[in-house]
Amino acid sequence: MTTATTNQAEAPLLSGRHGLGRDLAALAVILVLAVIGYLLFPNNLALLTRIMAIALLVLSLDLVTGYCGVATLGHAALFGSGAYAAGIAAVHFGITDPLLMVAAGIIGGALAGLVCGVVILRAHGLPQLVLSIALIHLFHEFANKASSWTGGSDGLAGIAPDPLFGIFAYDLWGRTAYVFAVVLLAIVFMFLRLVVRSPFGMLCRGIKEDPIRIQAMGGSPTIALLKMYVISGAVAGVGGALNAVSTQVVGLDSLSFTLSAESLVMLVLGGTGSLFGAVTGTIVFMLFEDLVSAANPFHWLTMVGALLIAVVLFAPKGLYGTVAEVLARRRGAGR
Amino acid sequence: MRRIILAALAALVTSAAAHADAIKVGVVGPFSGPFALQGKNFKAGIDAYMALSGVKVGEDDIEIIYRDVPQADPAQSKALAQELVVKEGVQYLAGFYFTPDAMAVTPLLEQANVPLVIMNAATSAIVTKSPLVVRTSFTLWQTSTPIAKVAREAGVSKIISVVSDYGPGIDAENAFKTGFEAVGGQVVEAIRMPLSTNDFSPIMQRIKDSGAEGVFAFLPSGPTTLGFVKAFNENGLKDGGVKFFAPGDLTQESDLPALGDAALGLQTTFHYSVSHDSPENKAFVEAAAKAIGNPTELSFPSVGAYDGMHVIYKMIEATGGEQNAQKAVDAVKGLSWTSPRGPVSIDPESRHITQNIYLREVSKADDGTYYNKEIQTFEKQGDPGLAALK
Amino acid sequence: MQTIFSIAVDALAYGMVLFVISIGLSVTLGLMRVVNLAHGAFAMIGGYIASYAARDLGVGYGLAVLIAVFGTIVIAIPIERLLYRRIYGRPELTQVLMTIGITFCIIGIANYVFGPTLKTIPLPPSLQGSADLGFRSIAVHRIFAIVCGLCVAAALWYAIERTAFGVRLRAAVDDAAMAAALGVRTEVIYAVSFAVAVGLAAFGGVVGAELLPVEPYYALRYMVTFLVVVSVGGAGSIPGALAACLLLGGIDTTGRYLMPEFGEFFFYLAVIAIVCVFPRGLAGRMK
């Protein structure tokens, strides 16, 4: 039994021979969900766009936490760096093409990933968590200090992205931003499916299980994890840039401990070590939060707390992880 | 397919508009989380206004829809504003405690044809971001400039400035410095401390070592002001004769019971004191205290919200309930009325509120409660921060 | 010279307050291996109870502290039985999810019951005012906090290292199955340790209330500080936590004196440096 408990759900997927077919199925699921979202909430596309931006952050966190076993409460550093990179490119350098802004976000996020990886990977367990907390506070404080570039606590305002391909403007209803977000999420999701299934992805999982053994086999855990961190940074950077493009303001909250902790909560809620788990956790958490906070803006936090406790009690492997496990068991019994 | 969806969408939007028998006002503020108190005050001010002035303007019912942004989060703020406009069909946006949250919404206004009435967010620049923004609160420049004069008149020529290191803190520092140097004083040192500072003893040591005769301080209202004021007393600065000057955020009424005797004698300048002596304020405080439940929780954001509602009511009157943001905003330019805080008006050019700023001193009432006693009035103060922007 | 002394006194006082508030977390985190992010929530409950007892019921300070400690333990017992028992030995991330959920619930309830204003715990006259140290004055309640911190440290160290209970606790932590086989009732051990940790949290919440005032968001506002201090010290080690509190208190105080505008950088860079040099904490038991 070498697979981790959290990975059991994914195991049957991995053993599937038709990798490509499953990828297409996954793509179809995302696109169908996107269409359903558009039909169900035609007046609330901004929320859905925001969910997708955060989903990119949670996916990126899943890469290092779920697949590599790195404990971090500072992952928003990567997301925020991407957001600020895109925002600064637009405000200070006049790069207002949305695609170029995303590219800037990817670079910013990847660089932040490199920096964070170098520091965070120096410890394990609880001290690692503390390193990540220290890092996110340093990033936050740095952005606060560099207010001539970042706008400080007032936020970086005045980001005015060009219409997408010069045709589709970012409007009040957020349709362009929504479609843009869906396409970005779908591309990233498919890319990540390739990454986690690749030999490199397998190596990372191996490191999570037993780094010493991997080292004995001639692999270099630190280098591999660092690579994963950079990829994770790029993914979070896409999310950050998407946020900057659709919101047109970047605030210090995108580099905050709160966002880091929330993204970890969403990941664990959905189930670590699976891409669908990450997306499920984000969607459920944010829709639930939106629902209860609109119902009672004053005392909704208790409901969110109750949801988290309930998930631990009744779906110990996260929502997606538990469902996938139950399905897998049924299928096993059926055969 | 796409055409069908769009048609369905259009049908939804138009049907929503057709059913709009009540005029909806969307209020975004921190109703939970660390700033829940301020959000609660928004609601108290709005409830008080509607209790005193009725829930109808002409034939139209007014409906308030609240949305929660617990901490500064522009992305969430914008998403909620968009939802309020598109889904709920609000004709007015209001509230906004934090600057970045308000900034995120300004690009929407024109297309949404919705005016934004800011009930708190206090950075000068927001009103310049869109011609559809009106502000009924204050700016740090507005409240911190008069205290410079007060300090100079109290015989202080060398002062040290201590502020929290974030946007409003820096605004306060700049405003004070500009004002103090204009009257011939000298700011010997300007310290910016991180927002997360819990222990202020080292800062007090710095103040002591600087040899300044007085200190100008700004911290966001809430838990840290308690630690700051206590440290000021306990480290012997108060007894050592160092004079204390600050904008009124430090002595907001809801913090006074916790501060207790430690705050006695502190002088602050601010646009509103719950104790302001006028019939308008008496009626307001009574209604707002009823709305908030616990009268000791009443604080300055409530009056920003109250006057914000006044402006919105005037806008609705002027437009007759029809959705026309520019007309609504034009109608309140130059509007003047007597607010619970005193006489106020909307400056036609900046759309920011012109108001009296009061010098207050924390005093103990006969029944043992603490209050801000108004001792001097600076009449008709505009926003010097806008001039500084140019 | 005088300035250096002065900073040292401030650092000691701040460090000891940090110690009193966070040491309970060291017990849950290091000895029970539970990432208890609800620690601050229990400290906050203690603060609220003490504030209510002292202000609204008018009992004395000492009694209010006792009521707070035992009241918090009474509140925590059902939480332990129903919720914490399910997460002993589970993956850390699951524990994080559960304890954050508990924290959210407690914040929501505190906000509903007590409202969002600050609550203070009135000090007795003997703890008010300032004491003169010759070169400067210091608040008496800070001296009180220092003394409390030293007493707690000594008592805990003695209980863990020198008593039969301490031996059983350490045995249960190192190998629960083996300890159970040898007749140690691990469930009871865990319940008692949890009660002690919660009691310490409540005690710290009350003693530290002058520095960290009680309000609903307390539970999350200072969570990071507690977690950092305990981990730097090495979870589960009393001397380690003491050393970490004094060291970090010193760095924080010095940084805020010399360069307040970069205080945050100072503190967190120091944390990174310490963790890199001592990856298991200053005196850690963690593997």
From TrEMBL, chain A:
GO cellular component: plasma membrane
Topological relation to the membrane, as annotated: Multi-pass membrane protein
Swiss-Prot/TrEMBL keywords: Cell membrane, Membrane, Transmembrane, Transmembrane helix
GO molecular function, one term: branched-chain amino acid transmembrane transporter activity
Top-rank lineage group of the source organism: Bacteria
Pfam families documented for this protein: BPD_transp_2
Compartment(s): Cell membrane
InterPro entries: ABC_transp_permease (IPR001851), LivM-like (IPR043428)
Residue intervals passing through the bilayer: 24-41, 47-64, 76-95, 101-121, 177-196, 229-252, 264-288, 300-320
PANTHER family for this protein: ABC TRANSPORTER ATP-BINDING PROTEIN, HIGH-AFFINITY BRANCHED-CHAIN AMINO ACID TRANSPORT SYSTEM PERMEASE
Protein name: Branched-chain amino acid ABC transporter permease
UniProtKB/TrEMBL annotation, chain B:
GO annotation, biological process: amino acid transport
CDD domains the UniProt entry points to: PBP1_RPA0985_benzoate-like (cd20013)
Origin: domain of life: Bacteria
SUPFAM superfamilies tied to this protein: Periplasmic binding protein-like I
Leader peptide range in chain numbering: 1-20
Assigned keywords, A-Z: Amino-acid transport, Signal, Transport
Entries under Pfam families matching the protein: Peripla_BP_6
Ranges for domain Leucine-binding protein: 23-364
Keyword Signal: yes
Family per similarity comment: Belongs to the leucine-binding protein family.
Protein name, as recorded: ABC transporter substrate-binding protein
From TrEMBL, chain C:
Record-annotated membrane-spanning stretches: 12-31, 61-84, 96-118, 139-160, 188-212, 224-250, 265-283
Keyword Transport in record: yes
CDD domains: TM_PBP1_LivH_like
Swiss-Prot/TrEMBL GO biological process terms: amino acid transport
Gene Ontology CC entries for this record: plasma membrane
Subcellular location: Cell membrane
Bilayer topology: Multi-pass membrane protein
UniProt keyword annotation of Membrane present: yes
Keywords tagged on the record: Amino-acid transport, Cell membrane, Membrane, Plasmid, Transmembrane, Transmembrane helix, Transport
InterPro entries named in the record: ABC_transp_permease, BCAA_transport_permease
GO molecular function: transmembrane transporter activity
Pfam families named among the record's database cross-references: BPD_transp_2
Family, per entry: Belongs to the binding-protein-dependent transport system permease family. LivHM subfamily.
Family annotation (PANTHER family): ABC TRANSPORTER ATP-BINDING PROTEIN (PTHR11795:SF442), BRANCHED-CHAIN AMINO ACID TRANSPORT SYSTEM PERMEASE PROTEIN LIVH (PTHR11795)
Protein name per UniProt: Inner-membrane translocator
Phylogenetic lineage: Bacteria, Pseudomonadati, Pseudomonadota, Alphaproteobacteria, Hyphomicrobiales
